[in-house]
């Protein structure tokens, strides 16, 4: 069994004095609550496979490479190797790591003050130098770092190393020969080496985590526009999670900032359970997405026979069976054209575990005259109530619509008045088969979710509350 040393690195991450709000989303932003387990995973992953640390710590498969490896600070030619700090101590030349267990983290959030993070590692060193036998050493190290969390100039959360110090613990000799007089020299030299060796490791860890935190600020596509995230306020901390109030900035295709009306009522965000992370998507983003589609004409459609499958009736003969009085002496077997125009922004309702979209539309029914232009039959005002099916994916909230109800009212007719209710079933069928699929294509890009520590929400639990949608994923 190879000897090893147990080091305890303790980092104190200083946060602001505030604590998370009481659950009211007063602004229009997204509320992200990141569980402490996710921060721990990000730190652990940066140590194991982060590209920045790969050449610092080395890997389990090649523990004698990198900063602590045979060619690094503890290896031959390094600070403790031949020609290094111990170059004058011939007996210790060539001291290098023999075994390195990558650090395992454990952290504790301190409400209103910071985070305490412990990194545990085991390192064994040996020296095959001129001493008789294989010299094997072990030491204990405690490192304390102070790190501040703030907001970068780009508007993202960032960890900044403020102070770093190390405390060398007990040194043990497991095998080989080492004069007692050299123990003091070993202790003195290791005390000088470890700050320069370990503090850059902490800085590198923070660099990897900051890259993940920086992904919050990203420009991602939205239906006929884009969405950009930034922090609206300083990050807050509780005993279980970090809270980020993220401001979504919606832009048109041309890059202009879109500012649709906000919901006057705040969303009451439910409590977060332990070992879960949570993102709240406000009603504002739903209304903004549909507002963008409406102002760009993406909700309008001309429904012609070429677009309609054979099982959808779209001729004057079909219409005469429903409303003979509305056609008068119009020839039968003529094709119909439905010109659907949405002149007002749809209204989205989020409440009672259901998402509904109310879409007001003007429907102009025309018929084709052979070798001529379409002529008007009648014009209707309609209100469609569509149920929104919300599906969480890894980085977005997918939205698809299906018709629940359609009501119409006659605005004008080329003949006399008629009972428009007899048209509702026919029009509902056309909307379900032709119009709703067009809407779903336009909505396919979904509502982007903020990228925080690479959390995937594909397996999250979705809850529709009043004026918001909450996604909760286990850590």
TrEMBL record:
Major site of localization recorded for this protein: secreted
Stretches assigned to the Lipid-binding serum glycoprotein C-terminal domain: 273-473
Subcellular location(s) of the protein: Secreted
GO molecular function: lipid binding
Annotated ranges, domain Lipid-binding serum glycoprotein N-terminal: 33-274
Domain of life: Eukaryota
Protein keywords: Disulfide bond, Glycoprotein, Secreted, Signal
Keyword Disulfide bond listed: yes
Family, as annotated: Belongs to the BPI/LBP/Plunc superfamily. BPI/LBP family.
Protein name per UniProt: BPI fold-containing family B member 3
Organism field: Rhinopithecus roxellana
Gene name, Swiss-Prot/TrEMBL: BPIFB3
């Amino acid at each position: 069994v190879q000897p090893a040393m147990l080091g305890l690195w303790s980092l104190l991450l200083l946060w602001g004095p505030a604590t998370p709000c009481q659950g009211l989303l007063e602004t229009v932003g997204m509320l992200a609550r990141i569980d402490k387990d996710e921060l721990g995973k990000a730190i652990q992953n940066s140590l194991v496979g982060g590209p920045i640390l790969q050449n610092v710590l080395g890997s389990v498969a090649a523990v004698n490479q990198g900063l602590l490896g045979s060619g690094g600070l503890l290896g031959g030619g390094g600070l403790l190797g031949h020609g290094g700090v111990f170059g004058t101590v011939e007996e210790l030349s060539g001291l290098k790591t023999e075994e390195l267990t990558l650090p395992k983290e454990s952290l504790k959030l301190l409400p209103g003050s910071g985070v305490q993070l412990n990194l545990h590692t085991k390192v064994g060193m040996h020296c095959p130098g001129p001493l008789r036998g294989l010299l094997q050493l072990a030491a204990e190290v405690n490192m304390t770092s102070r790190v501040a969390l703030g907001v970068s100039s780009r508007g993202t959360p960032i960890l900044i190393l403020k102070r770093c110090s190390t405390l060398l613990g007990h040194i043990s000799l497991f095998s080989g020969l080492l004069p007692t007089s050299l123990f003091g020299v070993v202790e003195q030299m290791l005390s000088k080496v470890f700050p320069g060796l370990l503090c850059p490791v902490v800085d590198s860890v923070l660099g990897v985590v900051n890259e993940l935190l920086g992904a919050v600020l990203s420009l991602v596509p939205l239906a006929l526009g884009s969405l950009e995230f930034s922090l609206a306020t300083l990050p807050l901390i509780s005993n279980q999670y970090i809270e980020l109030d993220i401001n979504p900035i919606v832009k048109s295709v041309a890059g202009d900032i879109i500012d649709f009306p906000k919901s006057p009522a705040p969303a009451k965000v439910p409590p977060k359970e332990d070992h879960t992370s949570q993102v709240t998507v406000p009603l504002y983003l739903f209304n903004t997405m549909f507002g963008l589609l409406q102002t760009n004409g993406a909700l309008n459609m001309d429904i012609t026979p070429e677009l309609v499958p054979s099982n959808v009736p779209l001729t004057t003969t079909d219409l005469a069976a429903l409303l003979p009085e509305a056609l008068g002496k119009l020839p039968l077997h003529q094709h119909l054209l439905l010109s659907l125009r949405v002149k007002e922004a749809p209204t989205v309702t989020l409440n009672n575990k259901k998402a509904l979209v109310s879409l007001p539309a003007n429907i102009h029914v025309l018929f084709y005259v052979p070798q001529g232009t379409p002529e008007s039959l009648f014009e209707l005002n309609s209100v469609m109530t569509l149920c929104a099916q919300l599906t969480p994916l890894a980085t977005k909230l997918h939205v698809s619509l299906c018709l629940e109800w359609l009501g119409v009212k006659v605005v004008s007719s080329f003949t006399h008045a008629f009972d428009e209710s007899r048209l509702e079933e026919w029009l509902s069928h056309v909307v379900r088969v032709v119009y709703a699929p067009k809407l779903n294509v336009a909505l396919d890009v979904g509502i982007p979710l903020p990228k925080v520590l690479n959390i995937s929400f594909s397996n999250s639990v979705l809850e529709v509350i009043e004026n918001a949608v909450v996604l909760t994923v286990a850590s």
